[in-house]
User: Which sequence fits this backbone?
């Protein structure tokens, strides 16, 4: 009770002090209240109207994006279509890949065919030995002439290079298919506006595929050039054999 009485007495003193304060003190308080009122009015009218305009513009932009640029209904329809197409073609692709294409029946040819169809660069070191088991090694110097051995060695090297390049091409093709499958999954679950990123990834994959095709084309050109050189080498060997035969006949006839 004493504390309440003291608080009431203090409040009355403050009230009478303010009431009997000089006019200058009342004028200062009025100025502060007027300044606060002006600031409140400015924030409510000028700034508030500007903020309201900004909010309306943002709302119009969001509505334009959601209703015109990226309508949620059409986006869901596109995602559903992508999922359906992907499911259909994935099933067909799986059936195609499951078809057995290996045709070798003997042990050594079957092993070589399995290595070449593995689509893995890790199996390339084993191709050389398996190739020799199927196509035999280069003849010894006592079994063939130097020119014949050179042609055989060059042909073997070209054949091995073709087989290894085909295996690497299969490996790169598998990677490209996996990347395409990943892009399809992202397209089916991507957010609006991410089509540009997916398109850039697809273009990079297309460039990698084009680079591999260019490598295969260059190898095919080298193979054609090597085959032409091989035929010319056979003609040269035939010409040399004919010359040696003619010289031998002339030498024999000259003795007579």
Assistant:
């Amino acid at each position: 009770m004493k504390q309440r009485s003291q608080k009431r007495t203090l409040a009355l003193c403050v009230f009478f002090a303010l009431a009997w304060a000089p006019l200058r003190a009342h004028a200062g308080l009025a100025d502060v209240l007027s300044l606060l009122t002006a600031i409140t009015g400015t924030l409510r009218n000028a700034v508030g109207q500007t903020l309201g305009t900004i909010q309306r513009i943002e709302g119009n932009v969001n509505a334009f994006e959601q209703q015109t640029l990226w309508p949620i209904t059409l986006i869901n329809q596109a995602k559903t279509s992508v999922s359906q197409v992907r499911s259909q073609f994935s099933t067909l692709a799986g059936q195609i890949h499951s078809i057995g294409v290996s045709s070798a029946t003997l042990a050594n040819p079957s092993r070589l065919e399995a290595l070449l169809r593995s689509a893995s660069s890790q199996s390339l070191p084993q191709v050389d030995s398996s190739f020799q088991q199927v196509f035999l090694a280069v003849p010894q110097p006592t079994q063939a002439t130097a020119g014949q051995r050179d042609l055989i060695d060059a042909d073997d090297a070209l054949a091995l290079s073709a087989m290894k390049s085909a295996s690497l091409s299969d490996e790169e093709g598998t990677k490209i298919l996996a990347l395409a499958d990943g892009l399809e999954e992202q397209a089916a679950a991507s957010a609006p506006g991410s089509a540009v990123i997916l398109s850039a990834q697809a273009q990079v994959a297309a460039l990698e595929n084009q680079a591999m095709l260019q490598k295969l084309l260059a190898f095919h050109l080298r193979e054609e050039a090597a085959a032409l050189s091989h035929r010319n080498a056979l003609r040269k060997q035939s010409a040399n054999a004919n010359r040696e035969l003619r010289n031998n006949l002339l030498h024999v006839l000259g003795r007579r």
The mean pLDDT is 78.
